[in-house]
Amino acid sequence: MLVFILGLYMTIVKGNLIKKVIGLNLAQTGVYTFFILTAKVNESTAPVYIGDEVRYANPLPQVLILTAIVVGISLTAFALGLVIRIYQAYGTIEESELSRLVQANREAQPSTLTPSSSGGEG
Amino acid sequence: MWIDLTLLGLLLALALGITFSRDTLTGSLLLGAYSLILAMLWVDLNAADVALTEAAIGAGVATPLMLLAISRSTRAELGEVLMTVQRYRRFPPFLVLGLVAGALVYASLDMPPLGNPNNPANQHVAPYYVQNAYHETGSENIVTAILVCYRGFDTLGEVLVVMTAGVAMMLILRRS
Amino acid sequence: MNPVINASEPIWAVGSAFLTALLIALTGRWQNLRDLWSPLGALAQFGIVASLVPAVLSGETRTFTLTTPMPGVALYFKVDELGLFFALMASFLWFIASLYSVGYMRALKEHAQTRFFAFYAISLGSAVGIAFAGNLFTLFVFYEMLTLATYPLVVHKQDAEARAKARVYMTYLLGTSIGFQFTAILVIYGISGELNFTKGGFLQGQAPDWLLLSAFLLYIAGIGKSAIMPFHKWLPSAMVAPAPVSALLHAVAVVKAGVFTVLRVVVYVFGVDCLVSLQVAQILPYVAGTTIVVASLIALFQDDLKLRLAYSTISQLSYVVLGAGLLSPLGAMGATLHMVFHGFAKITLFFTAGHIYCATKKTKISQMRGIGKQMPFTMIGFTIGALGMIGLPPASSLWSKWYIGLGALETQHYFALGVLVVSTILNALYFLPIVYSAFFEGGGGVEALTLPSPPSPNTVGEGESQLLPSPDAAGEGSVNLTPPAPLSASREGGEALYSPSPFTERGQGGEVNPETPSPTLPLSAGGESQLLPSSEASGEGQGVRATEKPPTSEVIEFSTPYLTLMTLAICATALGVLVLFVYPHPFLELARRVAGL
Amino acid sequence: MLAEHLPILHVLIPLVGAIVLLTGGVLRPLREVAWGLTMLVVLASAVSAFQLIPRVLSEGRISYALGNWKPPYGIEYAVDSLSLLLILLITSLTVIITLYTRHSIQRDITPNQQPYFYSAYLLFVGGLLGMVTTADIFNLYVFLEIASLSGYALIAIGRRREALLASYNYLMIGTIASTLFLLGIGYLYMITGTLNMQDLQARLEELYGSRTLLVGMAFITLGLSVKMALFPLHTWLPNAYTYAPDAITALMASLTTKVGVYTAFRVFFGVLKPSFLSQVVPLEEIFMLLGALAILGGSLMAIFQNNLKRMLAYSSVAQIGYIVLGLAMLNVSGMMGGLIHIVNHAVVKAGLFLAVGNIIYRTGLEEVDDLNQIAQQMPKTMLAFTVCALALIGVPLTAGFVTKWYLVLGSIEAGRWFLVPVIVVGALLAAVYLWRIIERAYFWSRKGGALTPPAPLSASREGGELGSPSPFTERGQGGEVNPDPPSPTLLPNSEQESQSPPAPKTSEVPLSMLIPTLVMAVLSLALGIFAVLPLNLAERIAKSLLGAE
C-alpha cells in the first residue's frame, strides 16, 4: 500500500513526464499486490489442479491481475509514446517548461495552428 | 516468512529509490528491478502465473519501452520541480495523498483477515472454480481456465486494450 | 354547462401566422410578392379569429390539443372570451400594421426586410398562441417564442447601440420569464398537478397561503412583459427598434401579452376568490399604481416622442394590472377592456411617430411644432390616440377607465381611485402640449440664441438612425432617478448657458434632423421638455420662441405612395378608436363574461 | 439464431470491425474504404441495438451469459431499460457522427492513418457500449480502459500540439482514476467474493456498516467522478475537448461523460441499493451539492471563455451538473430529469460541437470574437447552432426545457428549494454565453456604407453607463469600429485570414458534415416536442432504480 501512495506521489508531484509514468506504474503495482494478497489462502498451493483435496490459493484475483497488468502496460506504452511525441513537438518533457511554453504560445497567438503538429502530409 | 519480509523490504527500498531517483534512466532501471522482485514476492504468494506475467511484462516489456522513450526524448531531469516552487503549491498533493492513505488505513481496520480460507473472497465464487474448473474445462491450471473460459471476455478485452495501444501508437507516432 | 367542442380553429389561427412567415422567407427574393403575404396572412388570421366570435358569444368553448410533449403536459389550446378578445385585437391590428410597415420599411429603404416581416409574422403567431393557450405550459411556450421572435426586430438596426439595447431587452424578458415565471409554473404544477386554465382558478385551498402567495408574486414578477416596475427597463430600451416594431411591442403583442398573462393568472389560475383570501389587493394595486404614476412622471420629461410613448405605455398597461389587482369583477372587466382599447390608441400613436420620422426624420417633440399643418391627418390621428391615452371622449378608453374606476369604488380602494385621477391629469399634461404645438405653433419666429455646436461629427445625413442613444440613457439614468437635477439644468439652458447635463447628448439627437443644419435645437429641446411639467400654459409661452422652422407648411403626408399607405393605416386605427367608443357593445359583452358578471 | 445473442452483438460488432480495420490497415485498398466500412459497422451495431427495444420493454432485464458460464462465475451481460437508453443513445449518435467524420477528420490525419483512426474510433465506441452493457464490475473496468485508451489516442491526434499535452494530462488523471476504481473493485471483491453486480448487490446489503465497503465505494466514486468530469474533478475536460479533432470532441462530449455518469449510477443503484445512501452515507447530498456547484461554476467559466470549443467544454461541465443533480434527487421526477438530460445533452451538445466544427472547418475561426456575420456565410450551420443553443438554454419546446421542467419539479417535490434558483440561474448563464455567439453571428453588422451607423461614438460612451449585462459590450464596440469590414473573416488576427481562403458569399461545409449537424438540431427540437417516448422510458428506469427500495 505504501507503494501505491509513493506511486501516486510521484505521479502528482513529479515534473518530468516520464517520471510520472513510472509513478503510475508503481501505483498500479501497489493495487496489483493488494489483489494478490486477497487471493492468499494460508497453507495453500498455487491454483494448478492436482486433485480435489488440496487447498488452493484463490485463482480469481490472480486472473484479474493478469488482465490488469496487461492493461497497465498498454497504458504505459501509450503514455510513453505520447511523451516521445511531446518531446518532438516541444523539445522538453518537463511540466514546468511545458506550461510555460503553452502559456507563451497562447499569449502570442491565441488561435494559431502550429505547423509542426498539423496533420499535413505524413 | 523471512523471505516475504526480505522481499518486502527490498521492494520498499527500490520504490523509495525510484521515487527519489534523480534521473529518469535510473528510475526506469530500478523499476525493472522492482518488477522482478515483485514477481518473486508473488510467487511466494502462490500466484505463479501472475508473477510470470509481471516478470515478463513489468521487467521485460516496460523497461525497454521506458528506455526507448528516454532515448527518443531526453534523459535529463530538471530536478525536483516542486521543491523549487512556492510552498502553497506543495500543499494540495500532500493533502490528497494523506487522505487516500488515511482511507486505506481506515479500511484495513476491519478487513477480513489476510489469508484466511473462510474469507468471503475465498468462499463465494472461488471454490466453484477450484472444484469445477478442471472438470469443466480440462485445464489443469485453474487460472488459465478462468482466464480463457469463465472470464474469457475479459481476456478478449485485455487483448483489445493491447490492440488499442498499438493502434494509438500508430496514430500518434506515425504522423510526422 | 357550456358545450366544449374540439375544433382546430385555434391552431389555424396560430398556424396562419407561421405559414405567413414561411411564405415570406421563401419568397424573400421577390419583394412585392413577399409583402403581399403579411396583409393576407393577417386577414386570414383575423378571419379565423372573427369566425369564432359567434360561437364564443353563444357560450361554446373550443379546445384543441396539438401534441403532448411531456406526459400530462400538453400543447393545449382553448378559445374563451378573454383569449378571443386579445386575439381579435392582435390579428386586426396586425393587418393594419402590416400595411403600415410595408410603407415604413420601403420608405426608409430598410435592410433585411424579409427577416423583418418574417419575424413580425412569427410574433403575431405567438401572440395569438398566447391568446388561445389553454394551459400554463402552452402560454409559456408562446410567451418565450414571442420574446425570441421579437429580438431580431428589436435589434434590427444591428449597430452597437441596438445590440446593447436589445441585450437589455432580452435580459429582462428572458431573465424574468425563466427566472420567475418558469419556477412559478412549476410550483403551481407541483402544488396542484394541474395546468389547464379554469374559470375561477384551480388553486384555492391546494396549499398553504404563504406558498400560494409566493407563487403568485413569483408569477407576477415573472411576467416581465407587463412592464411593471421595477421590470420595465426593457421597454424604453426596445425603442431602438423601427416604429412598426414599437407598435408591435406596445400595442399589439408584447406588452399586451404581458398584461394578458396577468389577467389569465389572476382570473383563471389563482382565481379571484383565492387571491382575495391571500389579500393580494393589498399588494398588487399599490405596485401597479406606483408604476402608473412614476412612469407618467418620467414620461413628462421625455423629449423623444417614442420614449414618451414608451413610458406612457408602461403607465397605461399598469391600469390593466391595477384593474386585475382590484380583484373585483368590474375591475377585471375594465382591465380586459383597457387591454384592447389601449391597443388601438397606442398603435395609432406609434404609427404617427413612425410616420413623422419617415416623412421628416424628426423624433423630438420639440421639433414638431406646427407639424400638424404638414401632416394634418396624421396629427388628427395622434390627437385621437392621445385622447385615448387620457381617457376622454371620443376615445374608447373612456369605457375601460370607467370600469376600472367602478371597480375601485366597489372595493373601496381609494388608492386606486386616486391613482386614476392623478394619472389622468399627468396623461393630459404630457400629451396635450404635443397636440397643441403641432397644430397651433410653429412657423413663428426664428430662434435668437445660437448654441455652440455639439461635438458630434455624426454623419446623420444617412438619417437611418432613429436610434436615440443619449436621450434614452438620460431617461434611464438621470431623469428617472433625480428629476430635479435636469430640471434646473435645462432651465438654465433655456435662459442663457447651455449646461453639460444629460441634455447635451440630447442635442446630438436633435442634430439628426438633416434639414436643420443650424444647431439651434438643443436649447429648445431642453427648454420645452422642461416647462411641460410646470403647466400647459407655460409650455405655450415657451412655444412662442419656437425654433422649429418648418421648411414648408404644405401637406406632405401623401407625397409618396408609401407615406400615403402609412397615413391610411393611421386613419384606420384612429377610426377604430372612435368606433370602439361609439359601439363598444360586443367588447363590453365579452369583457362582462370574462369578469363573470 | 442471432436473436439470442442480441445483448452482446452491438458490442462485438464495433470491436470486430476495429480488428478488421486494423488488419486491413496494411492493405492499400482498405484505406480507401475505411470510412465506408466504419459506417457499415456502426450501422449494423445500431440495427442490432434497436432490435433490443421490444424485448427489453416486454421482458425487462435481458441477461446474457457469455460462453454460457453461469453468471456469478462467468461474465454476464445484461440489458435493462437503463442500459438500453444508453445503448440506443450511443449507437445512434455514433452513426450520425461517423457520417460527420468523413470530411472533417481529413484535416487531422493523413490518408494512410485512416484505418488506424477508424479502428481506434470503433474501439472507443465498442468500449463505451461494453461499459454500459456489462453486468460484471471487473469487465466494466476492462472496457473502461479500452474506451479511455482509445479516447486518449483520439484526442492526441488533434491538429495542434497542445492536443498531445491535453491527451497526456487526461491520461494521467484518467489512469489514476481507473486505478482507484480498480482498487475499489478489489475492496468490494474482498468482502463479497464476487464481481457480478447483481450478486454484489445481494451480498453487500448485510455489509452496509463495513468500513471496507465504505472506502471501496469512496474509491470507486472518486474514480468515476473523474471519468464523468464532475465539477472539482473536471480539469482534464476543457483542454481535451478543445484540442481534440472536432468530430471526436462531439463524440466525447456527448458520450464519454454520460457513460461515466451511467457507470456511477449503475454502481449506486445496481451494486448498492438506495437504502445505502439513506442509511450509511448521505451521498446524494454530496452529489447534489457538487452538481449545483458544477452548474454554477461551469457556466461561469464558460462565460469567460473566448474559444468556442473551450466554452462548450465548460458548458459540458455545467450540464453534467444537471444530470448528477437530477439523479441525486432520488425521486422520480428528478431522476427522470437527470436521465432525460443524458439523452438531451448528448444530442444538443453534439449538435453544438458539430456546428462549431463546421465553422472551424470552413473558416478556421475558433474565437467567439471572430464570428461576426458568420451566419451570412454559413446560414444552415448557424441555424443548427441557434436551435441547439436554444435547446441548451431550455427554451420551451426544445430538449433542454423538458430537462429543466423535471429537474425543477423534482427539486420542488423533494422540498429542496435552494436547487430551483440554481437550475434557473444555470439556464440564464447558458443564455448569456450562448447568446453572445448568436448575436455576433447574426447581428454584428459588417455592413459597409450607408448602414454603418454613426452611433458607435456616442454609444460607446454610454456603453458603460448602461451597465449592459454581458462583459462583451466593450469588445463589441471595438469590433464595430471597423469601418467597413468586407469579409466576415476580418479580424484583429490577420494570420487567420491568410489561412482561410477568402470567403465567398455563402460557403457551407460538405453535406456529410452539414447533414449530421442539422439532424442534431432537428433531434433537439424533436426531443422537446415529442418527449413522451423517452420520458416514458426514463420514468420506467427511475421507478425501477428507486423501486428496489
Our count of helices of chain A gives 4
Give the strand tally of chain C. Answer: 3
- Broad shape of chain A: rod-shaped
Give the helices and strands of chain A as they follow along the chain.
HHHH
For this structure, the quaternary state is: heterotetramer
- Tell me the radius of gyration of chain C: 23 Å
Largest interface: A-B, 81 and 87 residues
Describe this structure in words.
The complex is a heterotetramer of chains A (122), B (176), C (597) and D (549). Chain A is an all-alpha fold. Chain A has four helices and no strands. Helix content of chain A is 66%, strand content 0%. In chain A, helix 1 runs antiparallel to helix 2 and helix 2 runs antiparallel to helix 3. With 597 residues, chain C is mainly alpha-helical. Chain C has a domain of 278 residues. Helix content of chain C is 70%, strand content 3%. The longest helix of chain C has 33 residues. Chain D is mainly α. Chain D is built from 25 helices and two strands. In chain D, helix 5 runs antiparallel to helix 6, helix 8 crosses helix 11 and helix 12 packs parallel to helix 15. The longest helix of chain D is centred in the middle third of the chain and has 32 residues. Chains A and D meet through helix 1, helix 2, helix 3 and helix 4 of A and helix 7, helix 8 and helix 23 of D.
Key traits:
heterotetramer, C: 597 residues, mainly alpha, 3-stranded mixed sheet, D: 549 residues, 1% strand, globular
Characterize this entry briefly.
The complex is a heterotetramer of chains A (122), B (176), C (597) and D (549). With 122 residues, chain A is mainly alpha-helical.
Per-chain topology:
The complex is a heterotetramer of chains A (122), B (176), C (597) and D (549).
Chain A: H1 2-13, H2 17-38, H3 59-90, H4 95-108
Helix pairs in contact in A: 1-2, 2-3
Chain B: H1 2-20, H2 24-44, H3 48-72, H4 81-84, H5 87-108, H6 120-123, H7 126-137, H8 142-150, H9 152-173
Helix pairs in contact in B: 1-2, 2-3, 7-8, 8-9
Chain C: E1 4-6, H1 9-26, H2 31-51, H3 53-57, E2 61-70, E3 73-79, H4 81-107, H5 113-132, H6 136-154, H7 160-192, H8 209-222, H9 234-237, H10 243-252, H11 254-270, H12 272-278, H13 284-300, H14 305-325, H15 329-360, H16 371-374, H17 376-390, H18 397-410, H19 414-440, H20 469-481, H21 484-495, H22 502-511, H23 521-534, H24 536-544, H25 561-582, H26 585-595
Parallel strand pairs in C: 1-2
Antiparallel strand pairs in C: 2-3
